[in-house]
Design brief:
11 helices; about 375 residues; Ubiquitin-like (UB roll); 2 domains; mainly alpha
Length: about 375
């Protein structure tokens, strides 16, 4: 505080000036003494109390220790008398009055829990409850396009994957079937589409978790299994063919496991954010080698052996296996190869993806026997 300010305050307060003080010219301001606030006496539920003038009946009731229910009242807002839940009975008043806005008056007799008050509050709550159904319907109408749009975008790619990988989908089958149909060049576009879908479901399905439980039209399709198969195919491609793998595979893989972790957390499932590449996974090396052998029999060009590729594949799969397996189990997803166990399904419920693979018919093999025999001899132990 500066010295001139200190001198001014001492003078204004009527204190003796200190040594060296000079009184500034002009009149000395006089601060008015606050007037004591008038106290009002009233009776609430038979108890006589006193409150400052200007208090509302709600404040008086709270001061007296009586509870008055409210819905629209907030201390920082001006009362608007919308809900009518806080009504009380004032002696001599023809109607019930809202306690949040009615000011207390001297000599008032107030009842906060009379039969008339309880009946009025019950009717108000019943009316509000009856309007809830209309509000819910309005919300559903407003949100249905959003929810169905997210579901439809997801199911378009899940259904399209049926022709690329069979149903239920399996990672090695995606690569094998693309090679057999001479469609390997279309894999980058597929991975780019699934990268976009992963970002889409990470946002929409974590915001509206019930979308995760909305099933595909086909009982053999499931978005979790399809996404897992796409990520497995990308990890296989990267680990087995590092020189020719498209960059879209890495981008899809990254966005895919980020999405699965977000959805797992939305379902209350605890998953690691940054697992080590050498952390354990449930998929065994034996299952991995059988998947690689399936690709080799289909003629897919492999640059590395299963033994050399396993550490890299393991390091990729550790990022998404736990989240995918838990989601598949929680949603009772259709069982497929490399998709984990289901607590509520028996082994007889498991569907072998290879057994449903369509025959690869050619002019030289119109019945597709060669590929069919190859798949049938291998399908028994694919899982």
């Amino acid at each position: 505080m500066t010295e001139p300010t200190a001198r001014y305050l001492r003078a204004a307060a009527g204190q003796a000036p200190a040594a060296g003080d000079t009184i500034p010219p002009g009149p000395i301001p006089v601060f008015p003494t606050p007037t004591p606030q008038r106290q009002l006496r009233l009776t609430i539920n038979g108890r006589e109390i006193s409150v400052p003038e200007g208090s509302s009946l709600l404040q008086a009731a709270i001061e007296a220790g009586f509870e008055v229910p409210t819905l629209c009242y907030l201390e920082t807002l001006t009362p608007v008398n919308v809900c009518r839940v806080c009504v009380v009975e004032v002696e001599g008043s023809r109607t019930l009055v809202p306690a949040c806005s009615r000011k207390a008056e001297d000599g008032m007799a107030v009842k906060t829990d009379s039969e008339r008050v309880r009946l009025s509050r019950r009717l108000v709550l019943e009316f509000l409850a009856s309007a809830t159904g209309l509000i819910v319907v309005a919300l559903q109408i407003g949100y249905l396009p959003t929810l169905y749009g997210a579901y439809n975008r997801r199911e378009i790619l899940v259904t399209a994957l049926d022709s690329r990988a069979g149903a239920p989908a399996w990672g090695p089958e995606i690569l094998a079937r693309h090679h057999l149909s001479e469609a390997t060049a279309s894999l980058p576009a597929m991975y780019a589409a699934w990268e976009t879908l992963s970002a889409d479901i990470a946002e929409s399905h974590s915001s509206y978790p019930w979308l995760m439980g909305m099933r595909s039209p086909s009982p053999l399709n499931c978005w979790v299994i399809s996404l897992l198969a796409v990520l497995d195919s990308a990890a296989l491609y990267i680990s087995l063919c590092p020189a020719t793998v498209p960059t879209e595979a890495r981008q899809c893989l990254r966005m895919g496991f980020v999405a699965l972790r977000a959805l797992a957390r939305a379902m209350g499932i605890d998953v690691k954010d940054d697992p080590r590449p050498d952390d354990p996974i449930e998929l065994t090396f034996e299952q991995f080698t059988k998947g690689v052998e399936h690709m080799r029999r289909a003629g897919f060009p492999l640059e590395r052996s299963a033994e050399d590729a396993w550490p890299d594949f393991h390091g990729w799969r550790v990022n998404y296996e736990s989240a995918a397996y838990h989601l598949a189990d929680r949603l009772s997803a259709v069982p497929a190869a490399w998709s984990g166990k289901r607590k509520h399904m028996s082994k007889r419920d498991y569907v072998d993806v290879l057994a449903r693979r369509p025959r690869h018919r050619t002019p030289t093999d119109p019945e597709g026997k060669r590929v069919l025999e190859r798949q049938m001899t291998f399908s028994a132990d694919a899982e």
